Amino acid sequence: MRLKKKAGSAFLTKLLGGILLVLLCVGAYISPWGEIVRQWCKTGWEYIQNRAEWRLGTPEDVMLVGHKRTSREEILNVLHIVPHQQMNHIDFEAKKQRLEKLPWVRQAVIERKLPNKLKITIFEKTPIARWQNKGKYFLLDEEAHPIDDKRYLSEDLILVVGEDAPNHVLELLADLDKVPEISRFVRSAQRVENRRWNLRLRDAEKGMEIILPQTNVAYALAHLDQKNKKDRLLKKDIATIDMRSKGRIIIRPLKEVKSKKVKK
């Protein structure tokens, strides 16, 4: 009976001691000297990380997060994991830079999960359009930069054509976002003389053509959107809609275009 009381008393003493230690730590953190304590803790942990001989495991100990279009094999090849290499001898910044040179990787974050694991978080680029130039096709990312990977060219994205198309595609897409009833039909956009756009609806090559002005594109699209809601233009057999004259819409019916081709 006495042994049980002694054991219970010892456990209670340890529990109270642990609670007291936690309270002291919390008190130190929230005290006026808390910043100093936090800095000491941070410095101490960094010292332990740099001095301890923690060693990296095998490639199976690398956890990958966020990669969809970048394969695990591509990432591991770039990382070049050497089993049981000492972690504080690894140049993680150099590995991060090499990862960010992969076609789809916008940003990579490498975290050490001690004692012997790595967590790699990949933030990939988002394709916004397909770009055709001089017979070659590319994907453009959210900053309108070409993505050097041809595997996903079949994605259902607007096709932009022309040498300087990437320089103006973000502005065009922003203007189209304001008129969803029009933009959902747009399949391609071609730069004309590096000055303005022609849009193709429904079919990237043979669909209805919208001839946009050189400036005030947002205004022209808004005007077209209003006219379409009133007269349902996009439902009619129209070959071209010319928006180059401010405040005016010039329409060429499909029948007129076909009859001219027959006469030729």
- The protein's oligomeric status is single chain
Unreliable stretches (pLDDT < 50, length at least 5) are: 1-7
Mean pLDDT comes to 83
- When the domains are counted, the total is 2
Q: Strand portion, in percent?
A: 15-25%
Please report the total strand number as a whole number: 12
Helix content: 25-40%
Q: Give the second-level CATH assignment, the architecture of the largest domain.
A: 3-Layer(aba) Sandwich
Structural class: alpha/beta
Spatial order of the strands in the main sheet?
6-5-4-7-8-9-10-11-12
What Rg, in angstroms, do the CA atoms define? 31 Å
Write the layout of secondary structure elements.
Elements: H1 2-30, H2 34-51, E1 62-65, H3 72-79, H4 92-99, E2 105-113, E3 117-124, E4 129-133, E5 136-140, E6 146-147, E7 159-161, H5 165-177, H6 180-183, E8 186-192, E9 196-201, E10 208-211, H7 217-231, E11 238-242, E12 250-253, H8 254-263
Parallel strand pairs: 1-3, 4-7, 7-8, 10-11
Antiparallel strand pairs: 2-3, 4-5, 5-6, 8-9, 9-10, 11-12
Q: Gist?
A:
The protein starts with a helix and ends with a helix. It is elongated, with a radius of gyration of 31 Å. The chain has two domains: 59-124, Ubiquitin-like (UB roll) (Roll), CATH 3.10.20; 129-263, Rossmann fold (3-Layer(aba) Sandwich).
Question: Which descriptors would you attach to this protein?
Answer:
three-stranded mixed sheet; 2 domains; 8 helices; 264 residues; disordered N terminus; nine-stranded mixed sheet; alpha/beta; Ubiquitin-like (UB roll); Rossmann fold
Care to describe what's here?
The chain is an alpha/beta fold and 264 residues long. The chain folds into 2 domains: 59-124, Ubiquitin-like (UB roll), CATH 3.10.20; 129-263, Rossmann fold (3-Layer(aba) Sandwich). It has 8 helices and 12 strands. The strands form 2 sheets. A 9-stranded mixed β-sheet has the order 6-5-4-7-8-9-10-11-12. β9 and β10 form a beta hairpin. It is elongated and about 95 Å long. The termini are far apart.
